[in-house]
Design brief:
Layout: H1 5-9, E1 12-13, E2 19-20, E3 29-30, H2 33-48, H3 52-55, H4 61-72, E4 80-82, H5 86-100, E5 106-110, H6 115-128, E6 133-137, H7 142-145, E7 150-156, H8 168-177, E8 181-185, H9 197-200, E9 204-207, E10 222-225, H10 269-279, H11 287-308, E11 313-314, E12 326-330, H12 334-343, E13 346-347, E14 349-351, E15 355-359, H13 367-383, H14 389-392
Parallel strand pairs: 2-13, 5-6, 5-7, 7-8, 8-9
Antiparallel strand pairs: 1-3, 4-10, 9-10, 11-12, 12-15, 14-15
């Protein structure tokens, strides 16, 4: 059955008149979330107190919600668990890959990767102090750079700045042919584009749930471990809840026999309640429909903006196979232009040094909003409305 995007739009609480093109940074509030969080607070925490860990299923949340996320990223049941932050999950996955390839010392990434991934990898290499190297190349040079020295490729499928999309299947196959493992960051993929981790043969993946999955600020990250690795992967962060029997209170660490071993700390129960409600939106959604509509929306936005705003330079690929669900334009005054847009009710964001970034989520964005946003941007550019002192004042979050 075809996805009804009019129906999904009604599931979100977006202020009247606002055009929200920043779901690739923070998804909007699903209407069901406040009630579900209130239930977790009042009926569960308030009335059950500590018994809610058993009676309300709090301890099972990471695995149960992991399976719901798994459906959206083409992962096998039982292969995804939730908790902690994306940075932590990147560290876990990359460290596990290095332990599985002890004779190799190179982590391969690209210069379009999100900084936290690079920071985590470099920090891990420095911590190990055994000659490991983070090797960074241009995105288009990744395939050629994969050779027998690589322990793990660490790539974000969709570039956070440009929206450029890597070919997961091809690059994973190339890594495996060279004897390397493949880790994928899905921060800008999960809920935005169809993902097929199992089909592509990915070894590890991680992502956040506060962007396209709409679970709210601070929502937990997820980590994927291919079933073929689940019983042997060695977690560098050996948390209590990754233990095979946490309530045996053993002195030594004995990992759980599944992806559960990648759990670290106590699950954020209230945030997971928000995620649980947010994922309900996806029960009636087909990712193929999302992709088709996303490409239509981004095509229209590109055409409208390029026709009316010659001073803006498109940095997002035109080719559908190479594009995620966002569009980015470059301009030396990108920050001020974005602030002027936000003041007019069109919310996108800015990424240094000069990128205006717009996310397109068919769940709540339609063609009318796309055309209005492009028209407002054209007016701002034509009148130089962005060139006011208040639009040049830098806020802490851009």
């Amino acid at each position: 059955m075809q996805t009804d995007f009019t129906a999904t739009r009604a599931l979100f609480d977006i202020p009247e008149g606002l055009i929200y093109l920043d779901g690739n940074s923070l998804g909007p509030l699903p209407r069901a979330v406040p009630g579900r969080v209130a239930q977790a607070m009042q009926a569960e925490w308030g009335q059950m107190l500590i018994t809610a860990w058993n009676n309300a299923g709090w301890m099972e949340q990471p695995a149960r919600l992991g399976d719901r996320v798994a459906r959206l990223i083409g992962a096998e049941p039982g292969s995804v668990t939730l908790g902690d932050t994306l940075s932590i999950k990147v560290f876990q996955a990359v460290s596990a890959a290095l332990q599985a390839r002890p004779e190799r010392k190179v982590i391969l990434s690209d210069n379009g990767n999100f900084p936290t991934d690079l920071y985590m990898a470099q920090g891990l290499a420095d911590l190990l102090a055994t000659g490991h190297e983070l090797r960074i190349v241009a995105p288009e040079a990744v395939e050629e750079a994969i050779d027998e020295t690589i322990a793990v490729t660490m790539l974000t499928e969709v570039d956070y700045r440009t929206g450029r999309k890597h070919d997961m299947k091809r690059l994973t196959a190339k890594a495996h042919a060279a004897g390397a493992l493949a880790f994928w960051d899905l921060a800008h993929s999960a809920g935005a584009v169809p993902v097929a981790l199992a089909e592509c043969g990915a070894d590890f993946a991680a992502g956040c749930t506060y962007k396209y999955l709409n679970a709210g600020p601070g929502a937990p990250a997820f980590i994927y471990v291919a079933p073929r690795h689940a019983a042997t992967v060695q977690p560098a962060l050996c948390g209590w809840l990754g233990h095979d029997a946490p309530f045996a209170f053993e002195q030594g660490y004995r990992p759980a026999p599944s992806t559960e071993r990648m759990r670290v700390g106590t699950p954020p129960v209230l945030q997971m309640a928000a995620l649980d409600a947010a994922l309900d939106v996806w029960d009636s959604v087909d990712m193929a429909d999302i992709r088709k509509q996303s490409l239509a929306l981004t095509d229209r936005f590109i055409a409208e903006v390029e026709a009316a705003c010659p001073d803006l330079t498109l940095v997002t690929p035109r080719d559908h196979a190479s594009r995620g669900s966002q569009v980015s334009f470059a301009h030396p005054e990108g920050y001020a232009i974005m602030q002027a847009l936000i003041a007019r009710g069109v919310i996108g964001d800015f990424r240094a040094p000069d990128i205006l970034r717009f996310g397109f989520t068919p769940l709540y964005i339609g063609m009318d909003e796309v055309e209005r946003a492009a028209a407002i941007l054209a007016e701002i550019m034509a009148t130089r409305a962005w060139d006011r002192p208040e639009f040049h004042a830098r806020a802490r979050v851009t």
